[in-house]
């Protein structure tokens, strides 16, 4: 089963961390990635730029309308993700709990099962 583990970022929380705490997060992600590679559960992981560099695209009257920034105003945003292939939801939650961000109050880690384009859940 495939799961997306999304890391929700609050810039104010990150800005309040010390350089040592920020370094520990980076080192924790490095170790976590290596463990996922060894277990064969990692499909991919990516970090995303902050929402100030986002573009929102909507089609109105048959024409694309592009605006800058995030779709919704919020202090948190999706900062990156892991796409994993593991046995079940319980394992995905177990993995998510090992992400360094999960231990920092004010940051969030979300687990969602991947769906196919036809809308059915992956078996």
From TrEMBL:
Residues covered by the YCII-related domain: 1-114
InterPro entries xrefs: Dimeric_a/b-barrel, YCII
Top-level taxon: Bacteria
Family the UniProt entry places it in: Belongs to the YciI family.
Name this polypeptide is given: YciI family protein
Protein's organism: Actinocorallia libanotica
């Amino acid at each position: 089963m495939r799961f997306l583990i999304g890391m929700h970022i609050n810039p104010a929380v990150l800005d309040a961390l010390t350089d040592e705490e920020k370094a520990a997060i980076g080192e924790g992600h490095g170790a976590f990635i290596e463990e996922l590679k060894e277990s064969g559960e990692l499909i991919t992981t990516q970090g995303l730029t902050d929402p100030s560099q986002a573009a929102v695209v909507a089609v109105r009257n048959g024409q694309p309308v592009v605006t800058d920034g995030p779709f919704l105003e919020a202090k948190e945003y999706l900062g990156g993700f892991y796409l994993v292939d593991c046995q079940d939801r319980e394992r995905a939650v177990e993995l998510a709990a090992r992400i360094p961000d999960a231990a920092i109050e004010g940051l969030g880690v979300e687990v969602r099962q991947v769906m196919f384009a036809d809308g059915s859940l992956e078996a």
